[in-house]
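Listing S7. Sequence submitted for prediction.
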Amino acid sequence: MSTISRAISNTFYLICDWFVIMVLGYVFWIALAKLLSPADVGMFSTISNVAIFLSTFSSLGFNNAATKIVSQYLAKGMVDYAGGVMRFMLKESLIAGLLVSFIFLIAIKIFFPSYLDIYGIISVIAYLVLSSLYLISQGYLLGIQDTKKIFLTDLFNYFVKIVITVALIFIGFGYFGPVIGFCFATFLAFLWRLKSMKINEFKIDVKEIWNFSLNAMVGNMGGILFFQTTVILLGVLGTMAEVGIFTLVFMLTTPIRATFQSVSGSISPLASGKWTLNEKGIVEEMTNHAVRYSIFLTVPILLIIIFYSEEILLTLTRQEYLVGAGSMMIISLASLFFGLSYILFTVLYSIGEVVKVRNMNLAGGVANAVLCVALIPLLGIVGASSAYFFASVLAFAMAVFLFRKKMNMKIKGVVKIIISSLLFYLIILLSKQILSGVYSVIFGGVFGIVAYFLSLIYLGFFEKTDMKVLSSIELKIPRLRKFISFLKDIMKNYSKEE
């Protein structure tokens, strides 16, 4: 399979995975918002985010290092070596998880005895161990480019989690229901992934693994400080109800960030392999196309969330969550900058800029945490959202600066996307004048997206590479062949030759 075909195949399944995470993630959080009070949602959010924060230490950065190291040695044909790497990572992560759990138990009882009860503490420990193992397995599957397995296991995981969670909430388990649902579903999905993982004893360079993983772990702290610390600080400086509202509006903006993460995940192993073979031009081209496609896909989502934030919250949740509409607008815009920096940092990490990426991620995360401490006491949820926005802009600026020192950055079609976005905005304004509520969202969203896409075709946004992408999708989904052929014919009439 050619490099472009492989990248397209990876992207296809990761986009499917993104769709599962987005849709079923929405179903999960909307179910919580409908069935639980903001305070109960806040309690579950606190448990999950404390666990994710601690899993940074229990996973030891292996989830990132696995993708880099496994793909690197598979490119050299060293399959047994990659299996030895995974055996080492899973064993060390399990030991670290038990150690972190013990330290957490002692610390929470001494310093924050009223923060979580015994059930909350047990929930955090189970959550962090399972999430660490699941993340490492994902890193391995990305390394071997088995993105189809990632999609299928995530689909299974989310479906089982939702069914168990809803059933337990109705029985009366409250916020403990989603905790049990997560743990049970994640354990089963991990066992499924384990069947595809080659794990064997082999003499490996442990120093190389630690070099990548520890730098990745410190770098991951930046991502953790971007959200998990915000939730924890809201719980300390505010109320559990505020935590619940902030978590919900943040989750509702997931499609923006998930698009960038899916695209970056598809090119990460390819970038690592091609850079190892000194094919800098291909890495540069892949990155520029990844940023271009991500912006193209996320702009309609961004516009819908920003201008229909109140309608979305009233439709999907309860009246108590409406106070988060302003924060939802801020977070959605911040997610655009965060997503762009995520792609650039992922590529830079894949080509060996581990320390610099780590330091910049950490700087952005620390900036968010400091701003949260300053702004949450003054502005509450809006303060937390504003801190995330300013920190995301800072991270984007640092990512662009570092990337341009290694490669050229040339993103085509940005002006055309802006023009098409203005047309989308006008349709949104019209929909708000003639309709209200969910009908306004449907009218403005559907006709806005159609106008956005058609105007991009007319402006000559699409190129030869885009035709190849459509041809690959056509092969993956034969039922859409006629429709895709129709699109390609229209695009060819307006596309500019490269």
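Caption to Listing S7: primary sequence and predicted structure tokens for the chain studied. The mean pLDDT is 83. The radius of gyration is 22 Å.
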